[in-house]
Amino acid sequence: MSENVEANPRRWTALIFISLAQLMVVLDATVVNIALPAAQHDLGISDGNRQWVITAYTLAFGGLLLFGGRLADIAGRKRIFIIGLLGFAAASAIGGIAANTGMLLGARAAQGVFGAMLAPAALSLLAVTFTEAKERAKAFGVFGAIAGGGGAIGLILGGVLTEYLNWRWALFVNIPIALIATAGAYLVIHDVPGARNRNRLDIPGVLLSTAGLVALVYGFTRAESDGWTAAWTVGSFVAAAVLLVAFVLVESMVAHPLLPLRVLTERNRAGVYLALGIAVIGMFGLFLFLTYYLQVVKGWSPVVTGLAFLPMIVGMITGSTQIGARLMNRVAPRLLMGPGFLVAGLGLLILTQMKVDSSYVGLILPGLVLLGLGMGTAFMPAMSLATYGVEPRDAGVASAMINTSQQVGGSIGTALLNTVAASATTAWFVERGGNPALINEAAVHGYATAIWWAVGVMALAALIAFTFVNTGRQDGGAAVSGSSSTDDEDAGAIPVPVFAH
């Protein structure tokens, strides 16, 4: 049923605005972290409520991604993209003028809601706009670099805005970005004819998936603050398991599921979701520890701390655009993803050697460059493979799954590695008699221990990429030996090789 669809002549201009929107969503996950201490002091937010400035966003975003992705499939990706942009801008404005805790938390939750519409719409627009192999490689090279590096850019931007302007600008900065992207989307982005999903929305699926994902992300949030055996933590995980199992059962029975199980059960697609989600555990955990290390142990300012991550961004852009994009049509995706994760793991391995007096240039810098280079190389084919060859009418929900895997991975990474670091710090400190003069040494020991775990996590991501992802090149080249059959999704309106993504 494939038919040739005329390419959007302004697709490269469209890429600019799609990428801008993606940058806004990704950097918002970290830009507020740097501004949080100032916001807490200004609004009188209690220590107990402080985490909700972050959690309100992550819960809404992570819980509603599948719904947002399917909404884009049904209502039209351009329409949902623009609604998401305008809603995100409005929520950012409300957060920026917040006069009290409740107003700020409500705005952050609203940002998460509109972000959950925006992120899958952006990725699915990219997937259906760029279908020719070489163009797709270049487009996803840019998008992959932004998706991977946005968090680190947020750390830099948050530091600059907080130190030189005001914490409120960490929210206000979204407004011009969103308005520029909205104007561009209106003028140059086109929905692909015939790519709309005309089925009714699966309401039971929406409710079960949203509740299940919220419970899962909340469980990791509680684990970070209260411990893994706390009643709220265990209860959240149990609720998440029950709700998500019920969701899978419902999706297997309804005529028009929110998430067609073929999106999850195809081997290569599942491998991408799993490998990327696991790799993000290590990367996001490192953001947290390195930020504390540079600011608390080294005494660096927020701006200098943010700038310290710049080499990682450069490495990520280089890996995505100069390695991943150039090789994607020449080698199988696993030969980029697997080695990419291993290079990132090598960067983490270097960082396990950090000490209180470690040199930035001699230790931190090479570790960050290798981490960025490896993740950029792996991110690029993974982002493309997550949507390549899928039915256009399912592109939104397939895109939502890649965002969901990253969101869950980030939540796990923050909670799990923070727990490991805290336990190691306490044990080291107690063993040495609790000498206050050793507090920084204890903290750095905890960070290094947690980064060792991140090394193992990255190695596991590489193993999954090598073993699960067995498809051929993304120019339609033959699959490697042992490839599973291709997708049975042939009802799309876009003439791309369905090699399984």
- Please state the second-level CATH architecture of the largest domain: Up-down Bundle
Number of helices: 18
Structurally, the number of domains stands at 2
Specify the biggest β-sheet.
none
- CATH topology (level 3) name of the largest domain: Growth Hormone, Chain: A
Overall pLDDT, averaged? 81
CATH domain class of the largest domain: Mainly Alpha
What is the number of beta strands? 0
Hey, roughly how much beta strand do the residues contain?
A: under 5%
Q: Helical amount among residues, as a percent range?
A: over 70%
Radius of gyration: 22 Å
Structure class: mainly alpha
Shape: globular
Q: Give the CATH H-level superfamily of the largest domain.
A: MFS general substrate transporter like domains
Elements, N to C (H/E): HHHHHHHHHHHHHHHHHH
- Stretches where pLDDT falls below 50 for ≥5 residues? 1-5, 476-501
**Termini gap:** 19 Å
Transmembrane segments: 12-39, 51-68, 80-99, 105-128, 140-161, 167-189, 201-221, 227-250, 271-294, 300-319, 331-351, 363-388, 408-430, 450-469
InterPro entries: EmrB-like, MFS, MFS_dom, MFS_trans_sf, Sugar_transporter_CS
Protein name: MFS transporter
Pfam families: MFS_1
Secondary structure layout:
Blueprint: H1 11-43, H2 47-50, H3 52-75, H4 77-96, H5 101-129, H6 133-164, H7 169-172, H8 174-188, H9 203-226, H10 231-253, H11 262-265, H12 267-297, H13 302-308, H14 310-327, H15 334-351, H16 360-385, H17 395-431, H18 439-468
Keywords: Cell membrane, Membrane, Transmembrane, Transmembrane helix, Transport
Protein name: MFS transporter
Transmembrane segments: 12-39, 51-68, 80-99, 105-128, 140-161, 167-189, 201-221, 227-250, 271-294, 300-319, 331-351, 363-388, 408-430, 450-469
